[in-house]
Design brief:
Elements (H helix, E strand, L loop, with lengths): L1 H31 L1 H7 L4 H23 L2 H14 L3 H28 L1 H8 L5 H27 L4 H28 L4 H29 L2 H6 L10 H19 L1 H20 L4 H43 L2 H28 L1 H9 L4 H29 L3 H26 L3 H25 L4 H28 L8 H25 L4 H4 L2 H8 L4
Helix pairs in contact: 1-8, 1-13, 1-14, 2-3, 3-5, 3-7, 3-9, 3-12, 3-13, 4-5, 4-7, 4-11, 4-13, 5-7, 5-11, 6-7, 7-9, 8-9, 11-16, 11-17, 12-13, 12-17, 13-14, 13-16, 14-16, 14-18, 14-19, 14-20, 15-20, 16-18, 17-18, 19-20
Length: about 550
């Protein structure tokens, strides 16, 4: 049993490493591009970023709906069939799903394109938002099929193709965005709406590149032949039954997985419209405020949430495998390791981001005013809540508690909707952040309680690791404050270059201190195994 558990931990670590690396690189590229992009937009930087984010919020929701939660659900089903030695069912499932998702992509891409005027009006973005949303609809055409193949690889615990396809998608996307933005704003018409439209069309170009990578790996592993050729022994397999069985499994994933996007859409549909009625701000000023609490922080927070997504995604097939086998002890350890790994990462990074909030913001968007900085800090702190939900939501469904997962999600939505208007009235731009935080805390509580009950998790070890992570984070903060104090005598982070040096120096010290302390108290050993001993030897630590 212990060997199996160790093997699972190694699997999870390898998978997490690949997904974390790809998600981190992808999100980092998605954040770094904003520096030249924002500069090239000139005086329209905040408005352009606001339009971009409004379009992406609707687009992200369409991606969720059009895939019907397929990546995670397919991974879950493939893992189940492989566990019970029915691998041919996995290939039959993919064959049927690829046909189904091609049709689904076409339908939802058409709906998004045709309904772009309605969504633009609902968001308060006006006519400028219509071409932005229509350009994004092309990506919806490809994504469903691509998500099936990614879920297929995930189900086999082969996450290298998934990771490389994700990186390829983002690299090509960013190249297209920057090239078109430069040519339009610096050489061409200077129309920032046209530049934003091309920047969002880049999503389609990136997905084409990602699809090619996935097809290459399918061919390389010999799986493409197995998918395209229907073997004789599959004659008794009902492909449609497998399809609908997986769709039933997928629906809860799309519902619970849409929480962050849905909450952002609620913000988008309410903030400008409510603020127009209760304040004297112009539409342009409100679009800037929307960018302050939504668009601008998202570039950073999504880098951190990417790690949570990686941890949650990797654990799904393994947790399902334990549940199917009835091995709840291993399941409890897996849950504990997943959450511990998340908290180990998210606490110091979030606190660190808050400590360098002003120079960090300056790197991407220029020197912030008091409102921009305050909203940025609040959004950073909220990352802990968002990340925890992102891990727990697929975890509870991996244990086949779908109905309860949906119920808890609706609890959160109800709280969000109930608080949204009064919070905006009372706290203006801070209101959406407050209502989102409270709205997610409720399902987090219920999901954790249910997971604990199903697998028999004893939270004592988890609480110990949580407490230890917090103590190490506090120690890191003290040393970082000292470094910041000493740096203040040398220079001030008043521009992008100085801010970058400042963040790199402070962040580097903070990360080094946290890792060294984690090695010293052996907190990190659970996650990286024998590599921790190797690191201690190199650092000459006992």
């Amino acid at each position: 049993m212990s060997y199996e558990t160790t093997s699972q931990q190694q699997q999870m670590l390898r998978g997490t490493a690949w997904l974390t690396a790809s998600n981190f690189i992808s999100r980092l590229l998605g954040a770094v591009y904003i520096i030249p992009w924002y500069i090239w937009m000139g005086q329209h930087g905040a408005e352009a970023n606001g339009l971009f984010t409004m379009g992406y919020n609707i687009y992200a929701w369409f991606l969720l709906v059009s895939t019907a939660g397929v990546p995670v659900a397919v991974a879950k089903q493939v893992a189940k069939y492989n566990t019970i030695d029915k691998e041919e069912h996995s290939f039959a499932l993919i064959r049927e799903f690829l046909k189904f998702m091609l049709v689904l992509g076409l339908i939802f891409s058409g709906i998004m394109y045709l309904m772009a005027p309605f969504f633009a009006s609902m968001s308060g973005g006006g006519a400028d938002l219509i071409p932005v949303m229509q350009s994004l609809s092309w990506a919806v055409l490809i994504f469903p099929s691509m998500s099936v193949i990614r879920g297929f690889f995930q189900g086999f615990n082969n996450l290298k193709p998934y990771a490389i396809s994700q990186i390829s998608e983002q690299v090509i996307r960013v190249i297209w965005m920057l090239l078109t933005a430069y040519f339009i704003m610096k050489i061409g018409s200077g129309d920032y709406v046209e530049a934003v439209t091309q920047s969002t069309f880049a999503a389609f170009v990136g997905m084409l590149a990602s699809m090619l990578v996935l097809l290459f790996y399918l061919a390389k592993t010999g799986m493409l032949r197995s998918i395209l050729r229907k073997p004789k022994k599959s004659a008794g397999i009902s492909s449609r039954s497998l399809l609908w069985d997986t769709i039933r499994e997928a629906i809860p994933f799309i519902i619970t997985g849409s929480a962050i996007q849905l909450f952002q859409i609620i913000d988008q549909a309410t903030f400008i419209n409510i603020m127009t009625q209760i304040s004297d701000y112009t539409k342009s000023e409100l679009l800037v405020q929307f960018a302050y609490f939504s668009a601008n922080p998202n570039k950073i927070t999504m880098i951190l949430i990417a790690v949570a997504t990686s941890i949650g995604g990797v654990g799904i097939p393994l947790l399902t495998e334990n549940y199917v086998k009835g091995d709840f002890r291993s399941g409890a350890r897996l849950v504990q390791d997943n959450l511990s790994m998340l908290l180990f990462f998210i606490f110091p990074t979030t606190v660190g981001a808050v400590m360098v909030a002003s120079p960090l913001y300056t790197i991407f968007y220029g020197k912030p005013d008091s409102l921009a900085l305050g909203l940025f800090i609040c959004a950073m702190l909220q990352t802990i809540i968002l990340s925890t939900y992102t891990v727990l939501a697929p975890m509870i469904q991996a244990l086949f508690q779908n109905k309860k997962a949906i119920l808890y999600f609706f609890y959160g939505v109800l709280v969000k909707l109930s608080l949204q208007v009064p919070m905006i009235n009372l706290f203006h731009a801070y209101g959406p952040l407050i209502s989102t935080t409270v709205g997610l805390l409720l399902p987090i509580f219920f999901m954790f309680r249910e997971i604990r009950k199903v697998v028999g998790l004893n939270p004592k070890n988890l609480l110990k690791r949580l407490l230890l992570s917090m103590i190490l984070t506090i120690a890191m903060v003290i040393l970082v404050l000292l470094v910041e104090y000493l740096l203040s005598f040398i220079f001030q982070p008043t521009n992008r270059m100085n801010s970058f040096i400042y963040v790199a120096a402070v962040g580097g010290v903070g990360m080094l201190v946290y890792i060294v302390l984690s090695l010293k108290v052996r907190l990190i050993d659970r996650f990286i195994g024998q590599k921790a001993d190797s690191l201690r030897q190199r650092l000459r630590m006992k």
